[in-house]
# Entry
Amino acid sequence: MLFRVARPALQRVATTSIRPAQSNNYATLREIEGRLKSIKNIEKITNTMKIVASTKLARAQRAMSESRTYGQTSNTVFDKAETKPLEGGKTLIIVSSSDKGLCGGIHSQITKAVRRKLLETPDADLVILGEKCKAQLSRSSAKNIVMSFANVGKDLPTFAEAQTIADQIFQLEKDYDNIEVVYNNFKSAISYEPGSAYAFSEETIKNSANFTAFEIEDEQLVNLREYALANTIFWALSEGHACEISARRNAMDNASKNAGDMINRFQILFNRTRQAVITGELVEIITGAAASEDS
Amino acid sequence: MVAAWKAAGLTYNKYLSIAARVVRRSLKEQPRLAAERRGDMQLKFAKWEGGKQGEVKSLAKEPAE
# Structure
């Protein structure tokens, strides 16, 4: 009877502070458990994606170095002839990106580079290969877009695809003086930079400094131009593909590491919270037992 | 002297791709399987007019003009 008078405040404080805190802690415990489970799932997924990307990377890099040989050989003609792009002619910018995300910032890099070029030549036409850059560029420069291609980047690019793209561009019947292909340059497994490759029109080729060094009939220039464009597109697609896979590998690697860190932190928090709940229950029991002893 | 394919309206790329397709189909069984993969085209394209996307067409079905 004494305890009921002497310790009402303490009891009240005890009940008000422990009972909501206890339910709080159980709810928090369940929340933490839920988060821990979902983060573990995410870590498994990102790890798998990283392994898949690593295996694809070897093939993509081999294909890229083969296509480099094509592109560089094709460009030897223009290097020897010292062809230069025409200043202020009708320009076409071909944007080489892809459809899939989760690969770091490579699509945004390309979009930024293209936007910078559009500042210099605001009435250039755009042909976009890939849904990602299409979505980004259609927000800012929809009026410049003439054609867009989808289903890019699913697998290694084939020369047949590059040829068909070049064909479609020529079927547009717009005579472009300069064609610039913007793609990601594969500098190393961790560094990619947007770069451009150029394809020239017959006029520009005829105006090259060293043109007289070559014996060529005018009607062959059309064929050379079409073939050179297909080569350049193929090179850009291959390098862009290799860059994308490498970027995805790095991004998934970072994501897995971050997920691993979060798992450790949450595991520790979970243990601490669980121990706090147990301690709280013990305190309650002991208080109750001590209180009933007194009576 | 204009080449026959040029007079028929083919571009150089189209001429090359048809020739490549013929060569691929004429290979023996083993190399043919490897080569057919190089002729795969999964692209789809759409023309844009005035900021609007037109309908989407598959590249493989494009006529040989």
Observations:
- Helices of chain B lie at 4-7, 12-25, 29-36.
- Chain B has one domain: 4-58.
- The first strand of chain B starts at residue 44 and ends at 49.
